[in-house]
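Work Package 4 report. The design task specified in the project plan requires that, given a folded chain encoded as structure tokens, an amino acid be chosen for each position. We show below one input record used in the internal validation round.
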């Protein structure tokens, strides 16, 4: 991120990366603190997470803490401007945008070839490759997603090192998965299709935290939403939240928009083509692009023709004339297509602050061996939650009426950009509760939703 220069300096070209960086106010505070505390001095951190503007703030925060950062993206979501920006600031970026799994595998292996002491993973890609070619010195790391946790949990005994799952922090669950994914999937549907949602019948597959938010946001956009769930408990919850919970075939027969957000594979397959209405729009918000079995659809004997109807919209014309539209080739819709924005800046600022604090705790050796594929420690959640409430001006401030509205104006102030870390810190090093938890060896949170 460009730091403010002298007044005589020419105005830098407007960049969305700078806009995002300035708005990540928690990370700004942590960055200022890490400049003093240098928790990663002498360590290499290997990352395999989406290379888009918000991750810049995280990766530069880790670098500011003294790390050599070797980074690659995830399948399909790498943004060229982000790669350029990071490379110019000392992050060693491997690879470029690709939807080719073999090429992506090469990039991941190049990251692992740097023999990082810490890994920041998204989908389990790096830790799985570590097991195929282990090396001494790996201290541990973090995994961002549900899908990664599902992949890594069976490997926990073999891994053995501290591995904290960011997804299983209650903060990540409600701030990003529920609220932010729901908003950004709705935004992406409208950005890609330019179609209205009002009165549309929408079938949401999966009612975990992400599905809850997707269903709620489409309902808030005046759609008529049904939830399809394999888990009867989640199905009950959806029903009590006021959603229809039909069987999958019934839902597919009626739906004008079908959204998968399950973490599972082949949720929608060619076998479903007979059920789909003419003009149905299919989109996926789950991590892997296999929730909608795209190759299976494309190769079906029922598909008479296929064409690109618009940017990021593929239309399959069936042999009876029905048209099925697929968004973003089945890739995560909120990180694909024209001008993808991803989840809201504030939600990512929270999630990435959890990342930075967890990596800091592992580097410090305060998370014990054997805490493998476990949730974020409770004290980290508390530090990050308190910092958010303070930094974003939500503490002790009337939400309307008289009084100065804290530091939260229409945009981040210079003081906010400098961050609280420059002053009181509020981080692991300064937190009494954290010290007590660490002394007691407490790691997992007490009220974590997995
Ligand atoms: N798009 C994004 O920005 C974004 C952000 C965070 C997570 N994710 C991804 O979204 C996916 C869902 O995340 P979550 O946290 O809600 O997961 P979760 O595990 O909490 O919920 C998934 C739900 O899907 C249900 N399910 C599984 N298979 C199903 C099927 N075939 N049909 C219907 N329901 C089925 C499960 O019973 C479960 O309730 C994951 O892949 C996750 O990595 C995406």
């Amino acid at each position: 991120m460009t730091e403010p220069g002298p007044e005589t300096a020419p105005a830098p070209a407007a960049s969305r990366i700078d806009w995002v960086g300035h708005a990540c106010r928690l990370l700004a505070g942590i960055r200022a603190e890490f400049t003093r505390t240098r928790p990663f001095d002498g360590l290499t951190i290997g990352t395999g997470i989406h290379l888009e503007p918000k991750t810049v703030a995280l990766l530069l925060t880790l670098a500011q803490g003294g790390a050599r950062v070797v980074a690659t993206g995830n399948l399909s979501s790498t943004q060229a401007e982000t790669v350029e920006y990071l490379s110019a600031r000392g992050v060693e970026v491997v690879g470029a945008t690709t939807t080719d799994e073999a090429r992506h595998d090469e990039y991941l292996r190049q990251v692992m070839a740097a023999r990082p002491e810490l890994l920041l993973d998204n989908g389990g890609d790096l830790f799985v490759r570590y097991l195929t070619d282990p090396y001494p010195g790996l201290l541990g790391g973090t995994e961002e997603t549900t899908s990664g946790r599902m992949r890594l949990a069976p490997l926990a005994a073999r891994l053995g090192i501290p591995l904290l799952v960011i997804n299983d922090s209650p903060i990540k669950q409600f701030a990003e998965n529920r609220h932010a994914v729901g908003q950004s999937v709705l935004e992406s549907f409208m950005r890609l299709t330019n179609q209205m949602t009002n009165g549309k019948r929408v079938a949401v597959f999966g009612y975990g935290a992400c599905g809850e938010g997707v269903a709620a946001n489409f309902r808030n956009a005046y759609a008529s939403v049904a939830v399809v769930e394999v888990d009867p408990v989640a199905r009950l919850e959806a029903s009590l939240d006021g959603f229809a919970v039909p069987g999958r075939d019934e839902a597919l027969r009626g739906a004008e928009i079908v959204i998968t957000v399950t973490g599972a594979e082949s949720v929608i397959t060619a076998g479903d083509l007979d059920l789909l209405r003419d003009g149905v729009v299919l989109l996926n918000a789950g991590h892997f692009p296999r929730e909608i079995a795209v190759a299976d659809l494309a190769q079906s004997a029922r598909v008479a023709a296929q064409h690109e109807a618009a940017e990021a919209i593929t239309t399959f014309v069936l042999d009876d004339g029905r048209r099925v539209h697929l968004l973003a080739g089945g890739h995560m819709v909120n990180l694909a297509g024209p001008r993808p924005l991803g989840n809201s800046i504030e939600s990512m600022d929270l999630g990435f602050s959890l990342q930075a604090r967890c990596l800091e705790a592992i580097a410090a050796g305060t998370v014990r061996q054997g805490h493998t594929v476990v949730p974020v420690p409770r004290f980290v959640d508390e530090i990050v939650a308190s910092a958010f409430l303070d930094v974003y001006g939500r503490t002790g401030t009337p939400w309307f009426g008289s009084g100065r509205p804290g530091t939260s104006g229409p945009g981040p102030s210079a003081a906010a950009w400098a961050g609280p870390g420059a002053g009181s810190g509020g981080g692991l090093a300064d937190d009494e509760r954290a010290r007590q938890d660490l002394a007691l060896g407490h790691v997992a949170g007490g009220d974590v939703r997995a």
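The chain is about 40% helix and 15% strand. Validation will be extended to a larger panel in the next phase.
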